[in-house]
Automatic annotation (TrEMBL), chain A:
<feature type="signal peptide">
    <location>
        <begin position="1"/>
        <end position="18"/>
    </location>
</feature>
<dbReference type="Pfam" id="PF00119">
    <property type="entry name" value="ATP-synt_A"/>
</dbReference>
<feature type="transmembrane region" description="Helical">
    <location>
        <begin position="201"/>
        <end position="221"/>
    </location>
</feature>
<keyword id="KW-0066">ATP synthesis</keyword>
<feature type="transmembrane region" description="Helical">
    <location>
        <begin position="241"/>
        <end position="258"/>
    </location>
</feature>
<comment type="function">
    <text>Key component of the proton channel; it plays a direct role in the translocation of protons across the membrane.</text>
</comment>
<dbReference type="InterPro" id="IPR000568">
    <property type="entry name" value="ATP_synth_F0_asu"/>
</dbReference>
<keyword id="KW-0406">Ion transport</keyword>
<dbReference type="InterPro" id="IPR045083">
    <property type="entry name" value="ATP_synth_F0_asu_bact/mt"/>
</dbReference>
<comment type="similarity">
    <text>Belongs to the ATPase A chain family.</text>
</comment>
<keyword id="KW-1003">Cell membrane</keyword>
<feature type="transmembrane region" description="Helical">
    <location>
        <begin position="116"/>
        <end position="137"/>
    </location>
</feature>
<keyword id="KW-0138">CF(0)</keyword>
<keyword id="KW-0812">Transmembrane</keyword>
<feature type="transmembrane region" description="Helical">
    <location>
        <begin position="264"/>
        <end position="285"/>
    </location>
</feature>
<feature type="transmembrane region" description="Helical">
    <location>
        <begin position="297"/>
        <end position="324"/>
    </location>
</feature>
<keyword id="KW-1133">Transmembrane helix</keyword>
Length: 351, 178
């Protein structure tokens, strides 16, 4: 929450700095004004090209493929080079990274954007890493782990024992592949997102939306009678109150994954915004003197982000496991059979 | 410059930030599901199954070690019991053997004593017999002598008295010499 405030503060306060510098800069020189807000939003946003860096004369950019689907016209695939600098190609153009048709028709943009491309890369990385780890387990069957295997094994065991077993209970095994994949996906992409020049994939709302939607779907599909009984006939609530309680509980079903979506998105985006803001200070004040402080703060936030990267992956996985655990939970804590439940719980707690 | 800047402030990028884009949702869904499927099949399944296997094998090994330890203790206890029993048996046998030996010695002693006694008695009897026989012989001899003496006396009775006396004396001397 605090992080979100910082992010909002930065977004809101940056234009103020920018305004100030814009004035001074127009007076000082004719070169293009530095707009931190725009720069930061450009960095954390998605793009149809992979912009590495620019010099005074050149832009070093990798142009990514555009895949556009227009009802009636079909699918078109071409390089985004044709759309660079606001150019028009086949009646399509980019407006603030938004693919639009010149004639105002509907365009569905399935382009391999910077984020989609980063997604592909990180997926390939994950596949190579974990399949090799899996092969290590097969090859050294029954032997002590080695290399990468021994690095990832404790993490996998931690997810299994501390997250899945504790939150889901005896049926945890079915959900292990999703939990492990989601954990490593978020962690890896958080870390890759911190790499200079890389895409801010986990700070993209579409990505977190998809992950949260998957969690929601898994929760709903694995839910049992108890789960719905809790929603439509919450135990211990008087009947008239159910009129209020049912909508509240139903909203709760959606709000849980929604919070997952917003938490991950906001955390990663905020981290990037704060880091970039500290770096921007150098350019805003147009002074080298500010750079030590700016770099120190930027470095501090960046290291903090390394921690946040794994923390957010853990939180997302843990909450997903808890939501699934709530959906597959067998016993319910009615006051009548509480005593009996207590007996049931005792042996499992001793485990 | 300023006007351009103002425009960029009110533009939609901030809105873009919180609007999920269809294209990326599509790619994210497709790629994530493929990754999930491939990892589940080629990574998580072998990893989790071999982790589980290893854990059960370690558990089994520990349990077996415990069992072996218990068995060893039992074995040791039974060994000690056997040893103690053997010791007791040995003691018993030794005691029995010494008792039998003592008995044998006693018996032999008794037998020897008996035999000795018997022999002594026999010897005594024999001696007594010999003695009696000798006495009887002496008696007979004495009787014979008396008769002989008496006969001689009776033969010389009529010659003279001193000569008779002398004769008796000589006869007596003869007897003594015998």
């Amino acid at each position: 929450m605090k992080r979100l405030f910082i992010a909002l503060f930065c977004i809101l306060s940056l234009p103020v700095f920018a305004q100030h510098t814009a004035d001074t800069m127009t007076e000082a020189s004719d070169s293009e004004a530095f707009k931190p807000g725009e720069m930061i939003l450009h960095h954390i946003g998605d793009s149809h090209e992979w912009h590495w860096f620019s010099t005074d004369n050149d832009h070093f950019t990798t142009y990514l493929p555009i895949i556009a689907f227009q009802p009636g016209k079909g699918v078109e695939v071409f390089s985004s080079k044709h759309l660079a600098e606001g150019e028009t190609y086949n009646g399509l153009k980019l407006e603030h990274e938004h693919l639009v048709a010149e004639d105002g028709g509907k365009v569905y943009d399935f382009s391999l954007t910077k984020n989609a491309f980063a997604l592909l890369l990180s997926s390939v990385l994950m596949l190579i890493l974990f399949i090799s780890v899996g092969n290590g387990f097969k090859k050294r069957h029954g032997q002590a782990p080695r290399g990468l295997q021994s690095f990832f094994e404790p993490i996998i065991i931690f997810i299994r024992d501390e997250v899945a077993k504790k939150s889901i209970g005896p049926k945890y095994e079915k959900y292990m592949p999703y939990l492990l994949t989601v954990f490593f996906f978020i962690w890896f992409n958080n870390l890759l997102g911190l790499t200079p020049g890389a895409a801010n994939l986990t700070g993209n709302i579409a990505v977190t939306f998809t992950l949260a939607a998957m969690t929601l779907l898994i929760t709903l599909f694995s839910s049992n009678k108890n789960y719905w009984a809790h929603i439509f006939a919450t135990p211990g609530v008087p009947k008239p109150l159910l009129i209020i309680m049912i909508p509240v509980e139903l909203i709760g079903v959606v709000v849980k994954p929604f919070s997952l979506m917003v938490r991950l998105f906001a955390n990663m985006t905020a981290g990037h915004i704060v880091t970039l803001s500290f770096i921007s200070l150098i350019f805003i004040f147009r002074s080298l003197a500010i750079s030590p402080a700016s770099l120190a703060f930027g470095l501090f936030i960046n290291i903090l982000e390394l921690l946040v990267a794994i923390l957010q992956a853990y939180i997302f996985t843990l909450l997903t496991a808890m939501y699934i655990g709530g959906a597959v939970e067998e016993h319910h804590h009615d006051e009548a059979d509480y005593q009996m439940e207590g007996d049931h719980i005792a042996p499992t707690a001793a485990h | 410059m300023l006007t351009q800047y103002d425009v960029s402030l009110t533009d939609d990028p901030p809105m873009n930030l919180v609007t999920p884009e269809l294209g990326l949702i599509f790619w994210q869904t497709v790629i994530f599901l493929i990754v999930l499927f491939l990892l589940a099949k080629f990574a998580w399944r072998p990893i989790l199954s071999s982790l589980k296997e290893r854990e059960t094998s370690i558990e089994n090994a520990l349990r077996m070690a415990d069992q072996a330890k218990l068995e060893m203790q039992q074995l040791k206890a039974s060994n000690e019991k056997l040893l103690a029993e053997a010791r007791l048996e040995r003691d018993r046998i030794l005691k029995e053997a010494s008792a039998v030996a003592a008995q044998h010695i006693e018996e032999a002693k008794n037998k020897a004593t008996e035999e000795g006694n018997r022999m002594i008695t026999q010897a005594r009897e024999a001696i007594q017999q010999e003695k009696n026989m000798a006495l009887a012989e002496v008696k007979n001899t004495a009787a014979q002598l008396s008769i002989d003496v008496a006969e001689r006396i009776l033969r010389r009775e009529l010659t003279d008295a001193p000569a008779q006396q002398q004769l008796v004396d000589s006869y007596l001397k003869e007897v003594k010499l015998n």
